[in-house]
Every structure is written in C-alpha cells, then in structure tokens.
Amino acid sequence: MENNVAIRFEHVNKSYGNREILKDFNLEIRKGEFLTIIGSSGSGKTTVLKLINGLISPTFGIIYVDGKDISKENQTLLRRNIGYVIQGIGLFPHMTIRKNIAYVPSLLNHRNKERTRKAVERLIDVVGLDRDMLDRYPAELSGGQRQRVGIARALAANPDILLMDEPFGAVDEITRKMLQSEIIRIHEQLGVTIVFITHDIKEALKLGTRVMVMNKGLVEQLDTPDHIRNTPATPFVKELIEG
Ligand SMILES: Nc1ncnc2c1ncn2[C@@H]1O[C@H](COP(=O)(O)OP(=O)(O)OP(=O)(O)O)[C@@H](O)[C@H]1O
Fold first, then answer.
1. Is 233 strand, coil or helix?
2. Is residue 217 in contact with ligand 1, taking CB distance under 6 Å?
3. Which of 99, 122, 125, 154 is most buried, judged by most C-beta within 10 A?
C-alpha cells in the first residue's frame, strides 16, 4: 500500500444482527485529507468512524490505518493516535479546562510540569481560546467554547487522524461559522487527516477537500466539493445540493 494512504477500507461489511449496515464498502483516505461525510440518517456514517478507531469491528473485510491491518494492532495504541470529537464532548465537570486538556496519556506520562503547561497553552492558542479560560471549569464556558476545548483535548495526543462526529451540531450559526474557520486553519496548520460527519451540505462542501455522500450503507458519490456541486452523480446527491 502506498505510504500516503492514512485509512483504507477493503471490502468491508458491517452488520448488526442480520441487518447489513455497510455493504462491500471500499474507501481510501490519503494522509492530510479533510474528508466530510454527509448522508441520510442511519446511513452508516458513525459506523464508518467507529470502525476506524476500532470501537467496533467489521463483520467482513479489512481496515488499514497507516498501512496496518487494525484488527492485528494494539487497540489502545491505535486509539491514542486517533483523536475523536463528538457533539457536546464530555468534559470532566470537576476539572479545570487546563486539566481537561492535559488529561491524555502523552501529557500525563511525562512528569515535566513546565512542558505540560506549554503544551496546553499551545493547544488553547491553536483552537483560538483565551488563555485565561484555562483555570475555569466547563460549566463556566459557552457551548462553542466547550467544543473548542474538546478539539484541543483531541489534539493533545498529537494524533495523525482526527475523527469528528457532528462536532458543531449543537451550536448557533455564528459560533458554527467561527468553529468552521478554526478547523480549516487547524487542518492547514497541523496537516492532520480529518474525517468529519455533518448533516449540513454547506458545511460538507465548505470544509471537505473531498466529500462522501452516503445513503443506506452505500456511497452515492465521493468527490471534490466542486464536482459534487457541479456534477451530482445521482438523484439523491442532486436533491441534497438543491436542498
Ligand atoms: N450497536 C448497534 N446495534 C444495532 N444497530 C445499530 C447499532 N449501532 C447503530 N445501529 C444501526 O445502524 C444504522 C447505522 O447507524 P449509524 O450510527 O452509523 O448511522 P448514521 O449515518 O451515523 O446516522 P445519524 O445521521 O442518524 O447519526 C442505524 O440504522 C442504526 O440504528
């Protein structure tokens, strides 16, 4: 496998009981790509994300991360290299923002407090929050600010891959726009591979270097935002674009 491939699904099938959710699913995501996934509810988007970080296993088929078959990898190490951001990220309410961000193995493991402090400050800068928020508690932040902390925490492990499941779903339109600009900047700055689920076609087209449209466990179209916009491959994609 070429070494510029971050994630690869090879003939993956995922069933829950006798319900087949993904059918002969194939996907290659290159390193540094920003892939957005959009599609009907229940089409298997979250299933794809959970398969990447080994939270669930395929029924058939193989998933490779950085060229390695993940079923043969140490799951803890795999997940350490993959950040996961979900809507309304569960911050620890009794810990300050500083502690919440530092609460990852790579920062906890070394005893160098100064290094941890610097790393946390760098992360809070990266997600565009003021440093004076570090000593507050999650309840003292707005929803959008908490979401930024969630991203900072996911980045704290210095992951190669960032999985984001509707991370901006619960915030107002203005905050959403700011978070979108922030994640584009973070992607450009850190070169991390991002897989991002959204229900908003505008968001999918704005953020993605490629967009995957899913419907009922199948890929309707996987293409650049321009191609999706200008040459929708199926009636489903056309309807999505025309809204
Ligand atoms: N643990 C489970 N057991 C049984 N069925 C499941 C399980 N997890 C998900 N499903 C089903 O699999 C299908 C795909 O779920 P998934 O969460 O991947 O969809 P999604 O595209 O992310 O949907 P949404 O946009 O609504 O979040 C759904 O029909 C869901 O009900």
1. coil
2. no
3. 154
- Confirm whether 109 is domain-assigned: no
Ligand 1 neighbourhood includes 41 CB (under 6 angstroms): yes
Question: ipTM of this model?
Answer: 0.95
Task: For a ligand 1 pocket test, name from 20, 47, 201 the mutation site with the most ligand atoms within 8 angstroms of its C-beta.
Answer: 47
Q: Could you give the C-alpha distances from 195 to 28, 117, 190, in angstroms and in order?
A: 12, 29, 14
Query: How far is Cα 65 from Cα 201, in angstroms, rounded to an integer?
Result: 27
Q: Would the CB of 57 count as within 6 Å of ligand 1?
A: no
Instruction: Give the CATH number for residue 71.
Output: 3.40.50.300
Residue 38 counted as domain residue: yes
Q: Show the domain range for 33.
A: 5-91+160-242
Residues whose CB is less than 8 angstroms from the CB of residue 31 and which lie 6 or more positions away in sequence, other chains included? 4, 5, 6, 160, 193
Instruction: Determine whether the shortest distance from the Cβ of 14 to ligand 1 is under 6 A.
Output: no
Burial degree of 190 (CB within 10 A; 0-12, 13-18, 19+):
middle
Number of domains in the chain: 1
Q: Does 29 fall in a domain?
A: yes
pLDDT in 10s for each residue of the chain, 243 residues: 568 999 999 999 999 999 999 999 999 999 999 999 999 899 999 999 999 999 999 999 999 999 999 999 888 888 888 988 887 667 899 999 999 998 875 555 556 778 788 889 988 988 889 999 999 999 999 888 898 898 888 888 888 999 999 988 877 888 888 889 989 988 998 899 999 999 999 999 999 999 999 998 889 999 999 999 999 999 999 999 997
Q: Is residue 107 part of a domain?
A: no
